[in-house]
Design a protein that fits this description.
about 375 residues, five-stranded antiparallel beta sheet, Beta-Lactamase, about 55% helix, alpha+beta
């Protein structure tokens, strides 16, 4: 029994070492995961708060641009009343006005009290269905011109027989013109491209090709989106689940900048987890909502890499320590076996020497016997 127990003692020790090693690896991985989760949440919070601040800044910039265009149109409307008969002068003045308002303003027009176009810039007509032609055509349609009110939202469909979806969205600004007697003489109309406004203030965010910039109307209609097929539809089309759709709608209609996590459809129609930062854009009595959308995986990608590197390093270090421990154990075991063998050899030599002495003693006794 003692010999059997001593035979299996090294195996029991190896099992104990293996269990202790696995327990240590598990504890290290558990601790690394806890640290990774905490750091990941902190990273998400910091990123979302930073993007919320950016969204609020972009919203303020868009508001200032729209208000600036409105002020310029208001000044020009008072000036244009006394020169409304000179067509060439009005168009030249509108050209300078359009150039002074920079890229967001796509077209400026003047209509009389009946809605007929008096002047328009750019005034060219083309047949290639270009973006500029679409803006001009909008003003030359009296039925549509009569619908342009202050801060109305407009969407331009793609051109071509097989074209589906919208090419661009705009916001219309209408400034009434009054004569010296206070009678309405018509209005000045301007169309601002919402896409150009977003590009002007959020262009650097697109350099990383990870953040998308969306724009929603007050009623939840999608005005600007990477997927042209969803422009003009309700915002809920991007979300699945009734409860999530309700939370999404309430989130978009927030009166202040905020952020949250959602699972939405991307431009390819795939469901992904994203971080959305929103901010309201006040335009007169109306409002828009800008949304900066970033995939969750992009935000936490660095933390995942750090966690993977730490885990691999910890496991590698443990394996190295185990191998070193086993090597030391093997050396110590061999040393102990050699010491034990050496001791047994010494005992054997002593035992043999004692036998030789006893043998000689017995032989001496026999030789000295009188027999």
């Amino acid at each position: 029994m003692i010999k059997l127990r001593s035979r299996f003692k090294p195996f029991d020790m190896q099992v104990s070492v293996a269990i202790a090693t696995l327990s240590l690896v598990f504890l290290i991985l558990l601790m690394a995961y806890a640290v990774k989760h905490a750091r990941e949440q902190d990273r998400v919070r910091q990123f979302a708060e930073r993007h919320t601040a950016i969204a609020c800044t972009v919203a303020a910039g868009i508001e200032d641009t729209i208000n600036g265009v409105r002020e310029q149109l208001s000044i020009f409307s008072r000036f244009a009343v006394t020169n409304s008969e000179d067509q060439a002068f009005l168009e030249e003045s509108m050209r300078f006005l359009l150039e002074s308002t920079l890229s967001p303003v796509r077209a400026i027009g003047m209509v009389d009290a009946e809605g007929d176009v008096l002047a328009l810039w750019p005034a060219f007509q083309t047949d290639n269905g270009s973006g500029g032609n679409e803006w001009v055509r909008y003003f030359r349609d009296p039925a549509i011109c009569g619908k342009v009110v202050d801060s109305s939202l407009i969407r331009f469909k793609k051109t071509g027989g097989d074209a589906v979806g919208y090419a661009e969205s705009a916001i219309g600004i209408r400034i009434p013109r009054y004569n010296e007697y206070g009678h309405c003489q018509g209005a000045l109309l301007a169309l601002l491209s919402l896409n150009a406004l977003l590009d002007r203030y959020t262009g650097p965010l697109r350099l990383g090709k990870s953040t998308e910039n969306w724009l929603f109307a007050r009623d939840g209609t999608i005005m600007v989106h990477a997927n042209p097929y969803v422009i003009g539809q309700e915002a809920e089309i991007l979300i699945e689940g009734t409860a999530e759709k309700s939370r999404w709608r309430e989130f978009l209609m927030s009166d202040e900048g905020s952020w949250d996590e959602f699972t939405i459809q991307d431009c390819r129609g795939e469901l992904i987890q994203v971080i959305v930062a929103v901010a309201p854009i006040k335009v007169g009595d109306d409002r828009l909502t800008i949304a900066l959308v970033t995939p969750y995986s992009v935000v936490v990608e660095l933390m995942h890499k750090v966690f993977f590197n730490i885990t691999v390093g910890a496991v590698g270090l443990i394996i190295l320590l185990v191998v070193a421990g086993l090597s030391v154990g093997v050396v110590v075991t061999r040393q102990m076996r050699w010491e034990e063998t050496k001791k047994r050899l010494q005992e054997r030599e002593e035992w043999q020497s004692q036998l030789v002495r006893e043998k000689k003693t017995v032989e001496g006794i026999i030789e000295g016997s009188p027999i």
